[in-house]
Amino acid sequence: MSDLPTKPAAPRMLDVVALITDRPDVGLSRGQVGTVVEDWGDGTFEVEFIDPAGTTYALATFSAAHLMVLRYTPLKAA
Questions:
Q1: Domains defined along the chain, listed by start
Q2: pTM score, two decimals?
């Protein structure tokens, strides 16, 4: 398993992410899950949040520091 990354990467387009802080200014709470739909190239990302029916309920910009990329494959702990 030595070919696994040793640290989480910054978010990329279409990554599934979770908020790691509350953002009451945009009506979102820590732990809510969204998808990166734009990388503004300056360390900020546009993230879309949808409900189970597929309706967008929030679209907001966040710095990478507010996001955790969710992984569905093994990632070696640092």
A1: 16-69 (2.30.30)
A2: 0.82
